[in-house]
Amino acid sequence: MSFGEMVQAAFPPQIWIILIVCAVLCAVGFYKFVYFLSVGYGFAVCGAGIAILVLYGRGLGIWTIILCLLFVVYGIRLGGFLLWREIRSASYRKTLKTAGGDKPMPVFVKAAIWVCVAVMYVLQISPVFYRAAGSAADGGSSDSITAVVAAVIMAAALIIESIADKQKSAAKEKNPGRFCDTGLYRIVRCPNYLGEVLFWTGVLISGFGALEGAIQWVIAVLGYILIVYVMFSGAKRLEIRQNKNYGADPEYRKYVESTPILIPLVPLYHLKDIRFIVA
């Protein structure tokens, strides 16, 4: 495959439609800055899944359709959960206000961030997009075992995230002033972020056997690296906040020294001192 062919395969007209969809849906960040990487994030992924289904229609194989539907479920679950938590929880609204900062942000800065996150979301979903393009081109016969494996991993990740969110909500209702160390939180301190990493690992795997040329691979891998970095950044930010809230509690100190922060069985307990991860 020549360089020109790789460029053409990596940037078909449909991918620009996906970018527009993601940009429109994550534009809610102009209303509230943190929405660029929260509610708008969920909306963008959901919209990308729907857009792929609309663009390629009946030409998709069954497992590619399932992958797209998992994007839809993911986006609805994430966006809906975050909005519902914001409505119900005064403490969460306070956290959002703190994360957004007190000083007004210039519009051009918001616009730059908007474009960057929209591009990032397209990079993230690109393995499924390229699989869909290939599946439509050959009448759905490109579905393979990697698509099945990817769908299973993505579905499992959604279950993990849902359980983690439910367990934390239940723990906070029982004891609002205490950190959560029950259920999945006994395994890692950030099981919801673990679910995110697993979900996008599944998305990357969905591209195996479907990605064509170096440019598609670079796009897919870059999207994966970016979202994993964002998850580690979120875990670091959470660790710093929890240290501030619970650092004087001996039980909390014992918990954080014995429970990995993000990856099970990997003895990585702290991110707060890792400089290249920006919280």
Précis, in short:
The protein is mainly α and 279 residues long. It contains 10 helices and no strands.
Keywords:
279 residues, mainly alpha, 10 helices, 71% helix
Protein model, in words:
By secondary structure, the chain is an all-alpha fold. The protein has one domain (3-258). 71% of the residues lie in helices and 0% in strands. The protein has 10 helices and no strands. 37% of the residues are buried.
Radius of gyration: 20 Å
Instruction: Give the overall shape.
Output: globular
- Distance from first to last alpha carbon: 41 Å
Low-confidence stretches: none
> What kind of assembly state do the chains in view correspond to?
single chain
Total count of strands: 0
Mean residue pLDDT: 91
Strand % is: under 5%
Order of helices and strands: HHHHHHHHHH
Q: In which range does the helix fraction lie?
A: over 70%
Query: Which structural category fits the helices and strands?
Result: mainly alpha
User: What is the makeup of the main sheet?
Assistant: none
Number of domains: 1
Number of helices: 10
Write the layout of secondary structure elements.
Blueprint: H1 3-10, H2 13-26, H3 39-56, H4 62-88, H5 90-100, H6 107-137, H7 145-174, H8 191-206, H9 213-246, H10 250-258
